Amino acid sequence: MRRLWTVAAVASALAAAGCGGGGGGGGSVPDGAGIAPASSIAFVSVRTDFSSAQWKQVTKLAGRFPGTPQLIAELEKQTNGLDFEQDVKPALGPEVDLVWFDAAGNGNDVVGLTKPDTKAKLETLLQKSRSKGESKAVTMQVGDWVAISDSQAKLDRFKTASAGDKLADDKEFKQAFEELDSAASVRSWTSGEFVQSALDRSLATSGAPPRLSHDLGDLHGISAAAKAEDEGASVELDGLIDPTPDPGTFSPSLPDDVPGGALLYVSTTRLDAQVRTILRLVARSKPNFETQLSQVEGVLGLSLENDIYPLLKDESALAVYPGTSQIPRVLFLQKVDDESKADSLLRRLGAIAQLSGSIKTETVQLAGKSVQKLTFTSTPVTLYDGTAKGKVFVTNSSSLAEQAIGGPVDSLADDPLYRSARDAAGLPGKVAAFAFGDVENGLPYMLRLAQQSGSVIPPEAFANGKPLHAAVVYLVKDGDALRISGFQTIK
After folding, report:
1. C-alpha–C-alpha distance, residues 310 and 271, integer Å
2. CB–CB of 189/171 below 8 Å?
3. Do 227 and 256 belong to one domain?
4. Per-residue pLDDT tens for 435-485?
5. Cys bridge to 272: 15, 93, 312, 318, which one at CB 3.0-4.6 A?
6. Considering the domain boundaries, does residue 306 fall inside one?
């Protein structure tokens, strides 16, 4: 049975083939939800119409990876010769669903559903899997569907539960699927109540009060979809929360102010609100936290409310670049209204840091401007910070500091890879946050760092990473949901 599900999982993975967005919406509820119990905690639906344009797009993308034939051969070897074309495809209907009908079995209480053209084809596949040493697969007819699991007890429990209310009639489930792209190859849903309860239990083990996460809202559901497209693969992830958070949004402008060549770029706005939320939750978990924080502010002569928060209201960005050693170069930018006040705060923080005895603070000239240099005496780390052009900058590279002051020679906004990935992802004019990753250069860089640290990286890892060019992920509010959308270009 384990190997049979391996084959099914590969089919699902190929159909998903990556991550992005668009949020086409208008998605219909999968047919299998019509027999899934309303008490189910998770549901995954895979389109298995192998003659469809979407499946052809999946196989086209998979063909761009040199390791695909070897992967298929290895899977056939692990399944003792079960052939996907001859054995698996004829046995599956146009839809295959996985239903986690409860949480009693540590995630193993799952049933597969399909509606084959004839049950005989499915039985032939299962019989072949048994004859090749697979665990016993048990089936049960439930309406027009065939349910498959690894034990009769699970199927009996599933059938009993499915006799009651159905997941397809659950309002929150229906709303979640209607948010998803109807053309997606893979769509999924997870119970928000289940996820939030598990999170609260985990937080409670660390001393947090009960239902701490509910301070942020009630999570009703998490839905996701993945789709293969001409230039790569897209994914969307929706969280239905009540009340729906209303994150600050911005029109990204800092890509014009950071140098091109970034392996990773992450940007957001209203860091002050995010820090406030975090500290509020910490205060609920630790009764003495606010008193201790006030004492620290008094000792440092600084106030979060008056000194820190006012500088974190606007757009901010973090960019990561290759380094000459195992330490990458990093640049942080924060747009500020009062450059003089920001510079004064940086100087005060530098003076406080120097009191520790492990940091040496000095003023140096870069690009014709006085900036602060902080040298960590026990490590090879040096930081430069200052203000320029209405922004605070902090970096561990003097060259990045000079470009933050004088402006980049070639900006990220003009980088062809960034522009193509941004356009492919359909990055909207206003977002709550977004990230760009140069996978084409970043993945080999990370693999080389791993090699330098003593890890053994097979040559195939470099070869199979070459089709992955760039990825963009962004966060927006869409009606009652927070949506994360993204796109991975595959060339």
Report:
1. 10
2. no
3. no
4. 999 999 999 999 999 998 899 999 889 999 999 999 999 999 988 889 999
5. 312
6. no
